[in-house]
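[retry 2/3] DUF916 domain-containing protein: previous attempt timed out, resubmitting with same input.
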Amino acid sequence: MSQAAPSQISAAGARHGRHVARSSRARRARLRPEVPRLLLAVAIVFAIALSTWLGAVAGVGAARAEENQPADTTVSWSVRPADTLQGTGRPNFAYEALPGQSVSDAILVTNRSTTGIELDVYAADGFLTADGSLDILPKGEESEELGSWVAVGSPNISLASGETVEIPFEVAVPDDAPPGDYAAGLVASMSVDAEGVVTERRLGSRIHLRVLGDLVPSLAVTDVSVAYTGTPVPFAPGDGSVTFTLTNTGNTRLDPDAIVTISGPFGLAPVTVRGADLSELLPGSSMEHTVQVAGVAPLGLVTAQVAAGAEAVARPGDTEAPPAVAGVSASATGWAVPWTSLAFVLLVAGIVTWWLLARRRAKKARAKDIAAAVAAALAARDAETGGAASDGAGAAEGAPVADDGADASGDPSEPPMTGSDDDPARERVVTG
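[retry 2/3] DUF916 domain-containing protein: success.
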């Protein structure tokens, strides 16, 4: 018994230890899933709180920005012809009248600003700008024609936000007004002072008036010039540019048209284009136009021909149609030189000239060498010939001279030497 008890106690202790270990592992296993859930819940709560705080801050900032933003002070207004006995839905004002006659009409002005505005309403003579648009004289410049014939019922107006007012006016044609077309503008303007610089903002509508009588439409074309621009490709066609001035020399408004032709000498390789976007011409006005012509052959000298025509502008309801406009033309000449081709030709000509000159110099050098060689050979031959002649002369001087009919050999039987050219001995001595 005493020996078995300790072993039983040890076994019981071991079982108890294993039970405690299993219990600890079970508790840890139950705790592991709870930790991530708790952390996730804390993160969600923090995110909600942060987003709520940021939203509140952004809302406060936007509210403050809106409070600090200045009010809209943009000023704008519009004008258009009123619907009267003169017409409805009109883009502008157009009349015809006899000298001494008056025309009554009205214009609508609307304030499209958020605040009230004050405007000046007046008429002024019209003119064409450099781009062909119709403009009117500045407020301080006095009109001399149609602008001075318009009397505005309310030159100064005050408009509340969104208010529209109808302003009557009258066009009184003078008794001595010449027949023809006149242009002006009726505007509502505001003067703006920006740092000491006063500018005028104005918005208006055109006024066209035809004073009935003898209408004489006429057109002139002047100041024609032509320019040429080549291409890098030798002998390829380039671009031409024709500039000309159209002048309305009649008393009616004109809608012009122009046909431009560029050709080479004797009318070779003509290229024709029609002028586009030619602006309307008021009586007495001029407008410069430039027409581009592609495909111009580089033929050296070219001629630009401008054939212009026009139609007198008529408005619906005119009681008198204007007569036709006679066509006019003008021309000018200019150079269409293919500079690239010319440079190429000059380069080839330079190379050929250099080659010919080099060949000529080489021939001269060879001829000089040959002449020198011939001279040297002749000199050498002359030197050899001269040495042989000297030897022969010495032998002749050493021989005895016969007297009284005896020859050089001393043979008295030989005939005496004479100076005859037929004597062989004399010939031998002379020739060596």
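[retry 2/3] DUF916 domain-containing protein: The chain has three domains: 4-68, 77-211, 219-337.
[retry 2/3] clearing retry counter.
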